[in-house]
Amino acid sequence: MSRRPESERSDWTDLDLLTREEAHGRLLTEIAETDVRLAGPDAGDEAERELLRTRLRALREAAEDLTDRTRKD
After folding, report:
1. Rounded distance between C-alpha atoms, residue 47 and residue 27, angstroms
2. CA gap 67, 38 in Å, rounded
């Protein structure tokens, strides 16, 4: 345990950072869950369905961006 005050500790000491692969995996899980929710009967009204579609597009773009960066590195 560090004797430094919380405000002076580095974020790196917390060791809670995700790797790109871990982040990509979590995004894929969220994409799958959102797909299921959007296809299900409990997706709500059209406005809620549109929000889910928007979220799904954003999740897919983020996952693709992580994949592209992993290939470049």
Report:
1. 23
2. 24
User: Which residues, other chains included, contact 13 with Cβ-Cβ below 8 Å and sequence gap of 6+?
Assistant: 2
Rounded to two decimals, the pTM is 0.69
CA distance 58 to 41: 22
Angle at 39 between CA 60 and CA 22, to 5 degrees: 35
Convert the pLDDT of each residue in 25-67 to its tens digit: 999 999 999 999 999 988 889 999 999 999 999 999 999 998 8
Three-state DSSP string of the chain: CCCCCHHHCCHHHHCCCCCHHHHHHHHHHHHHHHHHHHHCCCCCCHHHHHHHHHHHHHHHHHHHHHHHHHHHC
